[in-house]
Amino acid sequence: MEEEKQKIQTEKPQITDCDLSEKIKSVTKECHVRANSTELMQAFQRGNITLMQYKLLLCSLYKIYEALEEELDRNASHGSVAPIYFPQELARAETLKRDLQHFYGQNWREEMFIPASTLRYTQRLREIGCKHPEYLVAHAYTRYLGDLSGGQVLSRVPQRSLGLKNGEGLGFFSFPAINSPNLFKQLYRSRMNSIELTETQKEGVLEEAIRAFEFNIQVFDELQTFVNISEENEQRQRRKAQNLKTPDISVSQRSAVTSSLTSDSQLLRMLLGACLALALGIGIYLF
Ligand code: HEM
């Protein structure tokens, strides 16, 4: 905490409207709202995430951070990456790996489900890592600052709704090397603003930030579609199994039962009538 405060005071962040950190926040405002409105993020906000939703999200996040962090490591000394390179404080891939091991066991890599949109996202990260390392700041900002902002509030949801204990499977949300997310975000923004970029590069970074949000939205949507289909299939299987145990009765079968009941009671009434008539006849005869 003291170290973070010191760093921020030494670096004296004077953030203005023209700064990259302000511009990037403003151009991604609309996408941020859309990302929050996806069905998956809504489930988080309502506080009722399912185990399937959570596990699938972790799988995709692992692939995304694996690619992002490998590209950041490879470009660590690049002028646009060095100022925002904080592997000690931010790196997520290793913690995600442990979370996945918790849920899937030792064969977690084979068990993972990775949708096509996640693969497209990681391909883009690899591509810019080679061709435009200055764009990596847009992706690092989108993920890490998001995790240090809304992500901190959302962390309580899987813990509560999935009953996860002792932090198991929840490593992704915890940043043990960061005492104050707010102070760290200030430091990060000031480092972003210190990156020297031409106007064209700055424009490229802003466009890339929008793209980063779009990739996230696509991943959330595809994961949710998969969850919905799986749940529908599960329900269909359950209904099928129930039907096998207690066979359903069709409408025609039900009406056959009703009509047979009706004719049975008519028969009974006729028999009773006949007995009464016979008894009366015998009575009259004897009398
Ligand atoms: C349930 C979903 C989400 C909620 C409730 C949420 C909430 C928030 C909140 C409260 C902030 C702080 C705003 C501020 O300091 O002015 C924030 C910032 C941020 N969020 Fe989210 N968020 C969500 C999803 C996402 C997603 C999916 C992403 C991107 C993948 C994201 C990326 C960011 C970023 C980059 C920031 C930093 C903005 C800045 O200070 O420049 N958020 N979010």
From TrEMBL:
Subcellular location: Endoplasmic reticulum
Record carries keyword Disulfide bond: no
GO molecular function, one term: heme binding
Matches recorded under SUPFAM superfamilies: Heme oxygenase-like
Keywords on record: Endoplasmic reticulum, Heme, Iron, Membrane, Metal-binding, Oxidoreductase, Transmembrane, Transmembrane helix
Top-rank taxon, per record: Eukaryota
Record's protein name: Heme oxygenase
Species annotation: Silurus meridionalis (Southern catfish)
Source lineage: Eukaryota, Metazoa, Chordata, Craniata, Vertebrata
